Amino acid sequence: MTTAVAAKTKLKRMEPRMTTDPMLPEPYRVRQVVKETADTFTLTLEPSSGAGASRFRPGQFSMLWVFGVGELPISISGDPAESDRLVYTVRSVGQATEALVSREVSEEVGVRGPFGTGWPVEKAEGCDVLVIAGGIGLAPLRPVIYEVLRNREKYGRLVILYGARSPRDVLYRKELTAWARQRDTQVLTTVDYGGISWRGHVGVVTTLFKQARFQTARSLAYACGPEIMMRFVARDLETRGLARENIYLSMERNMKCAVGFCGHCQYGPHFICKDGPIFSYDQMRPLLEKYEL
Ligand SMILES: Cc1cc2nc3c(=O)[nH]c(=O)nc-3n(C[C@H](O)[C@H](O)[C@H](O)COP(=O)(O)OP(=O)(O)OC[C@H]3O[C@@H](n4cnc5c(N)ncnc54)[C@H](O)[C@@H]3O)c2cc1C
After folding, report:
1. Helices 227-239, 281-288: crossing angle, 10 deg rounding
2. pTM of the entire structure?
3. Is 72 in the pocket of ligand 1 (CB under 6 A)?
4. Predicted confidence (pLDDT) per residue in 205-258, tens digit
5. Ranges 17-21, 28-32, 185-189: which has the least confidence
6. Ligand 1 atom, smallest distance to 277 CA
7. How far apart are CA 59 and CA 120, in angstroms?
8. Among 87, 181, 201, 216, which residue carries the largest CB count within 10 Å?
9. Alpha carbon of 164 to those of 137, 226, 273: distances in Å?
10. Which of 65, 93, 255 has most ligand 1 atoms within 8 Å of its beta carbon, as the pocket-test mutant?
């Protein structure tokens, strides 16, 4: 193959695939499945057509359809710069997620999207970036970490605070270690229950704030995890001086259509699927105070 033809072929592969109908799933093939913990797996999918994968912004999600089982929203956990694949980290909690993590290499999955708002990473330029995650909440935040590390000169310190239930539930172990070695980057991990061999921190993620080094007046915070965790994280950050509009949270509600038609994911005046899943604390605070929503 001549260089020109090879370049053309490569370009064609990298062209983003444009979905004309957001309700129509596109077939993707499983390229790799990696076991992260006992119940959580990372799946790499590539378009069955051989075209480039859909482009996405950090924080966006797809609707993944396991044919014959069901469709479910899953955040994209891969690197936005990798245009030939989409990566998802899935915790098996029920029928659809179990079917998804049981897919084998070369089996097909339907993909709709990407949908939703992303983390406003560009807003953090010139500022310290706080990534605060609980459990599987690290998955939708991983693309932010990739973006910041790739464009290191644009941002101040990167502080990653991560809480898991137990040492066995810690996701992306090798990457957490690698990120901690990057310049101006601090990674702090805590668990709810340590066990006898755990030498690290024990406690909820907010207990890590004491050790975290960032300039409150020039920081943006991105948080994802159980709602109760985000409520406390946001309150603590505000108490420490972060402006509400500089704290972003990723909200989760069951959804069906992902395009604002079905109303399943309505949260106060918002549809999580199209107005979210990422909202500023400024927008979410009045709703987060209402536990029953
Ligand atoms: C925008 C968005 C992004 C998401 N990203 C991820 C991700 O990256 N990785 C991942 O593992 N999961 C993610 N989820 C959650 C995932 O969609 C649900 O776990 C999945 O739909 C459960 O389907 P199931 O059939 O396996 O379980 P079901 O049988 O439907 O439910 C099993 C249990 O999980 C609870 N549950 C179901 N859906 C949700 C939900 N949306 N929020 C809270 N509890 C729920 C049910 O109440 C039940 O207790 C995301 C959800 C949303 C809305």
Report:
1. 120
2. 0.92
3. yes
4. 999 999 999 999 999 999 999 999 999 999 999 999 999 999 999 998 889 999
5. 17-21
6. 1
7. 9
8. 87
9. 10, 11, 26
10. 93
